[in-house]
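Internal QA ticket QA-208
Title: Verify multi-chain structure generation after dependency bump
Assignee: T.L.

Test input:
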Amino acid sequence: MSILVLGTVALDTVKAPSGARKDMLGGSAVHFSMSARLFTEVNLVAVIGRDFPQKHIDFLEKKGIILSSLIKSEGKTFKWAGEYKDDLNSALTLNTELGVLLDFLPKVREEQRRIKCVFLANIDPDLQDHLLTRMRSPGLIALDSMNYWIKHKREALLRLLKKVDIYVANDREARELSGETNLIKAAKRLRRFGPKMILIKKGEHGALMYSDKFLFSFPACPIEKVIDPTGAGDTFAGAFMGYLAKAGRLEEKTIKKALAYGIVAASFNIEGFGLDRTSCLTRHDLENRLVQFRSLTL
Amino acid sequence: MSILVLGTVALDTVKAPSGARKDMLGGSAVHFSMSARLFTEVNLVAVIGRDFPQKHIDFLEKKGIILSSLIKSEGKTFKWAGEYKDDLNSALTLNTELGVLLDFLPKVREEQRRIKCVFLANIDPDLQDHLLTRMRSPGLIALDSMNYWIKHKREALLRLLKKVDIYVANDREARELSGETNLIKAAKRLRRFGPKMILIKKGEHGALMYSDKFLFSFPACPIEKVIDPTGAGDTFAGAFMGYLAKAGRLEEKTIKKALAYGIVAASFNIEGFGLDRTSCLTRHDLENRLVQFRSLTL
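Actual output:
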């Protein structure tokens, strides 16, 4: 099964202890695509501005990402600038320029409306909802969001959660939206908001997944040289959803393997700036690190 | 192999969101013993005051703990009072009364000096060092400490680390003593201080173990109803060391299983105040939860 992902395409500026980069290709939909492409065909739904460099479009095409629903609008591409201090666990946002995101209305090609596997990467929940109404009969819908929408568009987000199968959140977002500190309690509360499965990303501490039928808890791949964690969560989601879409099943064993691929893919992402590591990644690299990952845990 | 543990026997007063308890039996050596006893004979080296209730001594004896090196001194038993807020991850110390700890010099019986497996639970590093000089030829020495000693007796602690095989620390202590934020870097730096193995406890996020030959990372058992985490680290260490002592081997497979027992034992500890859960625990309970634990991870 192929995947459709709605999200942002951005130009990211990042400061970190190991260096700095300006206007790198980034955004939730791009990071997601870069790992999901290792498993299946990825259709990207997003907007860019007139200033968006052609080399980035060429790059995405070369990586096999379907760009027929990538709109080029009047105005400037979405820009994000952030800084990581020593602990590298959370970014301090220095600047956000929404640009073309402000007037964006996602469009999908007629032939894309029948895609069964949909990932609503972090973007305004109204846009996520709009995209969903365009799809014919999606079989698996996952949604990611962020603290900004939890705070400012809580009601829209809660309405949307009733329509999705998997809610993907980091630990802070899960705590904030649920009002529960304990992550198991948080997952159970979020489950009651609608999604059948709750996937909580814990950064360097791995991930936790909850449904009425199972609870999984995985550590992360220990990485010594963390360069830039930007996009790690989307890279995780890309490999997770990519594997599920390819497998075409939602058995517990399949979900566990998808989680492992997600964790392994994210561990590559953080080893370089932006897409440095994930853009050259092969399935073979993933498989090799998966073997390592298995050996270091229970 | 039997185990000898040096540490504190305390009267703990705990406030937590689910209630409060006054003067419960606690202390690092007691929590350690309560899980280690499930695997092997435990010899406790500690001090209590004249005020120490006989019922606690009877209780420890009934649990099979060897108390021949538990000294009763003039003065009051060590008391600790702490509070846990909503997140239950770290205690706020409300009060500490050192009492008989101030003049304590650990003594071991002649027949205990040949015990091969030694755990130096959290207590003044000078006392830990003194105990070590009393042992004839220990085969496996592990040491736990705390932020207070890292700050105030750093040199003594560093000298001591050269003599031990396993340094057990929580993530904050590992970061503080090593000066490294990344836990893999922290473990590598701590390795250079002397101990062949570094075991970092991460509370709700599991544990990480490093040596020149291996790196293990385990998640924790997800527990929804955390009542009182006091002593979880010592309970972890007790089951970990207890299993190693019983196995009498230090193969990677053995160490992995010991880690799993440690994590499972700690998950029981936090489900009740003080020793409520661990005092009734059986090997059968541990085995059952170990099966559950395996099913929720990779």
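Spot checks passed. The radius of gyration of chain A is 18 Å.
Status: verified.
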